[in-house]
Amino acid sequence: MEMNMEKKSRRPRPNLGEVAYDEIKAMILTGELKFGERLVLDELSERLNLSVTPIREALNKLAQDDLVVITPRTSHSVVQISAQDAADILDLRLLLETYALQTAGNRLATFPVSDFKHRFSEVTNSMDLKEFFIVDNAFHQAILSLSPNQRLPKLYSYLQNLIQVVSIQAIQSQNTDRIHEATEEHLELLGSIETGSVNAAVDCLQNHFEQMKSVVFRSAACERA
């Protein structure tokens, strides 16, 4: 009886490939690993205190998510999105979020405006980059949830990793200046949502993404110079 109880109390071992995947993905999506940075298996193995096998498994999975690039010689690097690719991703994001606002109907009045005003204000005071990305992602997910179309979140999820990469590239190119600018753009959008003006909210959303595209293209031009 005691042996049976002991067997039942044992917890299943974690999948080390999944552990490595979660850790490396978080390092990419917080900017801890730089875009275009070469990923060395032995270095990651030592850094995460895992063997090379789960690290390789994780990198292969991250390649399927478009976050890691694998060359023909089986070397790995963090994805680096071109300015044009970033613009295309932002255009698709604008289409999806505009649709969410335009189909929101009475749901627009339920948007947690005060909560997001408070959260963005805290980010501005702390200038915490990781916290900014958390709040930014939650904000845009909340916009999507306004639509009654249940297929929309799944469609958006395909782009979500790349969207965060574009956001990080835009922020890193201007450091804290872009956090201030993006926060002001979000607050303006929140004001339009609060008044119930869908057209004004869509205009603010379009301006927000156009500003992001401008930052990305300016950064690309500086790198070429």
TrEMBL record:
CDD domains reported in the protein's UniProt record: WHTH_GntR (cd07377)
The protein's name: DNA-binding transcriptional regulator, GntR family
Keywords attached to this entry: DNA-binding, Transcription, Transcription regulation
GO molecular function, one term: DNA-binding transcription factor activity
Residue ranges of domain HTH gntR-type in the record: 14-81
